[in-house]
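Minutes, project check-in

Agenda point 3 was the complex the collaborators sent over. CS summarized: two entities, 588 residues total, and the question is how they sit relative to each other. Sequences were read into the notes so everyone works from the same version.
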Amino acid sequence: MISLIIGLALIGLALIGTPLFIVFGGLAIVLFAIAGIDIAAVIIEISRIATNSVLISIPLFTFAGYMLAESGTPKRLIALSRAAVGWFKGGTAIVTLLVCAFFTSFTGVSGVTIIALGGLLLPMLIKDKYSEKFSLGLLTTSGSIGLLFPPSLLLILYGVLAKVSISKLFIAGIIPGLILIIIFAVYCLKEGMVVAEVEPFSFKKLLKAIKGAAWEIPLPLVVIWGIYSGTFTPSEAAILTAVYAFIVEVFIYKDLNMKHDVPRIIRSSMIVVGGIFVILGSAMGLTNYLVDEQIPMRILDWMKMYIREKWLFLLLLNIFLIIVGAVLDVFSALIVVLPLMVPIAKEFGIDPVHMAMIFLTNLEIGYNAPPAGINLFIASFRFRKPVMSLAKSAVPFLIIMFMVLMLITYVPDISLFLIKLLKVE
Amino acid sequence: MKILKLINYNLYRLIKIAVVLLFMILLILSAAQIVLRLIFHSGISNAEGMMRYLVLWVAFLGACLASYKGRHISLDVVSKALKKLNKNLIVFLISTVSFVILSFLFKASVDFIISEISGSQSIFFVPIWVLETVIPFTFFFMALVYLQSIIVSAKGMIKGIKK
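CS then shared the predicted structure for the full assembly.
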């Protein structure tokens, strides 16, 4: 009874806007106190952050993403994609998709994509006569479209929390991510029919754009090749990416100034990282307590009374995760819910890598879904439009995402094919 | 209140500098480690351990900055509407709860550090318990920030009632 009252009080506090790490930390303190465990145990969990060597990749990839977002990279990549695919109807919308996917994979789903690119891409789409509804829906949902691609922060966090090889997750995300982009692209082509005129293809222009972005093009390729070939661990890939982005943007392109821009970018990116790490620290104590108390197994026993089929479990899992994603932010959803779900999914015989793709695609949908999908609020702030009108614009894209989610859920090989083929360990 | 504001502001400025310096050290140390591994097949001893603690420091100092700037991850759907009704009351409630929980976390982290002192190993001649002091420091600074917020919002409420 006491636990229920405390639980409800903390839900109330979360709803009125109390930082989520405070809510999780408070809940952990109360539960530990009730169980007669010293609350220093919460701090032991926090200190374990320093024992995990993979976590180094989070600040470094985030820093690299912010360096790219704050420099001239968005303009150069838009110019490159426009020269490559902007010459056919629907091309500009596809440019939007590709550039947003690139940026989200590097910056995580922290809203940087919409903030950094929204102002550049929206006028381009409107100028090409795409409807405002389509343009806003595309930009809003594209803010999370790259999260299955390496080196997505969420893939790293998933690997850390579920103890799955991050190299496997990086490679496994490529096909599901591409399928999502291809289906989005088909929809963009259909909508692109409204475009009256397109610029003709120019090889000279393409060459110029490739030259312009020559230092940025190798970045994702180096990450994927380095990890796939076993030359680098994900942490080393993060170090190289951060150093590379730093050298390229400060000393080669000279877009960013060492004295003013770099310290500012370090601070902004570490504010995001700090926000994630304190949630990670406070929630780890909480989830470990719940796992120790056999809560996942109790949920599993209860579920087994009603559900025996794997397909039904997967369907209910999807519904549950979309709701979680639409109510909580993606990081909290991942950190709190994942440790409880992994043992249950294992019991139903779901491969941990397959589970990762299902989990993250759900969060991708929840991130854009009303009432609390954070992307809607970031887009509302960026484009000065009401949240509900953005939610309506996002509906066709959410339907596509849901279709892809079903494919990913019920065809495990979409997630597992590449790691089996490449024998990634 | 003025003293508290001054302490918080100066600590905030110090953290701003520290986070940049520590991040640059992390970047240089980690890059040096990779270069040594790839070219000379060797590395700096204990560098990886130090890098892990540097991550803890930059992340927790980043979290301190997030507290000062009010940029922690929170659910703001309901709170936005409630703040329109009575912003000071909501801020007062959130800050009070945060202050209380952070005080508990601070106390627990001081106990944790004390328990770590005896028999603590060292990395680069720095005892590990020293490297872990960022945890109580973070909770201490955050608690101070929320204490300031409690006082400001309480003053706002009193002003509102008087009006």
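Noted in discussion: The first strand of chain B starts at residue 122 and ends at 123.
Follow-up: revisit at the next meeting once the mutant set is ready.
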